[in-house]
Amino acid sequence: MNPEARAPEVIVIGGGPAGSTAANLLAQAGVEVLLIEKETFPRFHIGESLLPCGLPIYGRLGVDLRAQHLHKRGAEFIDEVSGRSAIYDFADALPGGSGFAYQVERAAFDHELLQAAECAGARVRQGERVTACQMDAHAVTVTTDQGRYAARYVIDATGQDAMFCKENRTREPLLGFGRAAAFCHFEGLHPDRREELCHTGNIKVLLLDQGWSWLIPLRRGALSVGLVSRKAPLRTELLDELTASSPTIAHLTRGAAERTSTRIIRNFSFRNTRPYGSRWVCIGDAGCFLDPVFSSGVSLAVLGGERMADLLVPALAQGREGEAGLMEPLYAQMSRAYEIVGALIHSFYHTRIVDNLFFAPRPDPALRAGLISLLAGDVWRDDNPFLDLLLRSKRRSGGLNFQAES
Questions:
Q1: Is residue 361 classed as helix, strand or coil in its secondary structure?
Q2: CA–CA dist 373, 96 (Å, integer)
Q3: Residue 234 near residue 180 (C-beta atoms within 8 A)
Q4: CA dihedral sign, ordered 142, 147, 152, 158
Q5: Number of domains comprising the chain
């Protein structure tokens, strides 16, 4: 580190979307920020589908998604066994939201966000691993494999590594959701298939007996293919079987497309039961990770990072950053999002919502528009008739509790 650099007021651990967003906005407000990232960007990451609800934040971050990423109109749900399919365009949602989103190459996208944070004034150290973090009444001390840093506040944005969650033993699995994912890319799609996919940019969701599969087109002519299973352990052969048997995948990858090696993520779908405290907070996937069937992860991460920064900036100016309940408003807001998206995921897996609404030949127009608003991530409005129906159903069934323990 430059010996002449000022000591950080805030340390952000993790340079993914949540951490980069937080560092960017804090730096814009004049806060001395140090972001520590264990990897060196650009690096591969999964989770390529954004939602309309998160788009306004990118202008505030100084990031233009139009240049490198694929315009996305919505989502298509496909049941290959029955032959049913349904397309949901974000433009058909309730009024007020963005009518589109983007499919992003996470290596490039995350690097853009990290560079934007640096341009805003955050100091970024890549290839440095945090090994310990200690908090007391007056300060925090972060130890890495390269040094030690003191600050007034620390943010855990370590994604599914969930550093503080593991240290505090506050990881609670979300039962009944996906247990693991296997995924790969198909590179070099035939130009006709590429044109077909890029026409709408839609994610395709294939319904499977024990889960679902995503098909996400990327601007450079690749297709991200993944399988989420509700059973564990997940064998890589299941993805092989899917790619060999699915007519949709066969059609889209026909020709000279080359498949990358299969990767697996296990033990996801969890919540952190204690995501904040005196001088620290967990944001993004370090606070909660939901089954990715509705692509909520990145959008909720950046929105959470934004809300966190807006709470922390005045607290630092007023010397209130040590208050144990400082981030309670953040998790009141985020818990509502987790509750609603979680209820939608639970209904997707455990009720007949797919038959009764997703594939309904003549769905109620108001309910359909409300469903699309939730698929777009618009979860904080109070005029959505489908949301009212979903929450009533959740209360009857007991559902999941996403309220944080302070």
A1: coil
A2: 10
A3: yes
A4: negative
A5: 1
| Residue 342 domain flag | yes
User: Of 278, 276, 281, 283, which is closest to residue 323 (Cα–Cα)?
Assistant: 278
Of 264, 301, 219, whose CA–CA distance to 16 is shortest? 301
**Is 301 domain-assigned?**
yes
- Domain-embedded: residue 340: yes
Tokens read off for 246:
């699915």
Q: Give residues with Cβ within 8 angstroms of 360, minimum separation 6.
A: none
Asked whether the beta carbons of 280 and 139 are under 8 A apart, the reply is no
Helices (H), 281-327: 297-318
Q: Could you tell me if 129 and 122 are in contact, meaning their C-beta atoms sit under 8 angstroms apart?
A: no
Residue 41's domain comprises: 10-172+270-397
Distance of CA 287 to the CA centre of its chain: 11
Which region holds residue 30: left if phi is over 0, alpha if psi is between -120 and 50, else beta? left
- Give, for all 406 residues of the chain, the pLDDT tens digit: 444 467 899 999 999 999 999 999 999 999 999 999 999 999 999 999 999 999 999 999 999 999 899 999 999 999 999 999 999 999 999 999 899 999 999 999 999 999 999 999 999 999 999 999 999 989 999 999 999 999 999 999 999 999 999 999 999 999 889 889 999 999 999 999 999 999 999 999 999 988 999 999 999 899 999 999 988 788 889 999 999 999 999 999 998 899 999 999 887 789 999 999 999 999 999 999 999 999 999 999 999 999 999 999 999 999 999 999 999 999 999 999 999 999 999 999 988 899 989 999 999 999 999 999 999 999 999 999 999 999 988 776 655 555 554 4
The CA distance from 163 to 259, in Å, is 33
Give the domain CATH number at 50: 3.50.50.60
User: Does 60 map to a domain?
Assistant: yes
Please tell me the distance from the alpha carbon of residue 405 to that of residue 192, in angstroms, as a whole number. Answer: 52
Whole-number Cα distances in Å, 135 to 89, 150, 295: 47, 10, 34
Element (H, E) at 238: helix 236-245
- Which residue stretches of 31-153 are H helix? 55-61, 106-119
Largest Cα–Cα distance of the chain, in whole Å? 67
Q: What number of CA atoms fall less than 13 Å from residue 155's CA on the CB side?
A: 37
pTM for the full model?
0.94
